[in-house]
Amino acid sequence: MSVDHPDGLRSTYEPVTATVTAGSAVTAGDPLGVLQAGHPGCPVAACLHWGVRRDRLDHLDPLVLLRPPGVRLLPWEGAAPG
């Protein structure tokens, strides 16, 4: 799955089954799809591969785009209290 951003960047997410249709407009926080489990090389139940690129061959480190504000983890509604 890929998302084209107004600044010319494209973010990619895999293995994801889209819950939005190609060409749909999305905003920050909108669910894009469902992470699929069980692909080769993933040491746990499911691994998300996230990438960012400018043009076809200019790949960027996606973590650089998070600074600031950084990563913020939210509680999962199904998680046991701890």
From TrEMBL:
This is Peptidase family M23.
